[in-house]
Design goal:
single chain, mainly alpha, 2 helices
Length: about 45
């Protein structure tokens, strides 16, 4: 049971890293997303 739990946690962390890397590569973390104009558009 503990081995399975460790595997699930490891896979979750790996998936998080992959998603973060994909977001960076895809430009989702672009600085333009955090400009005042973008914040106004979100409201």
């Amino acid at each position: 049971m503990k081995r399975g739990l460790k595997l699930v946690v490891a896979l979750f962390v790996l998936a998080g890293c992959i998603l973060f890397a994909a977001a960076l590569a895809g430009g989702l973390m672009d600085d333009a997303a955090f400009t005042p104009a973008a914040k106004e558009a979100a409201h």
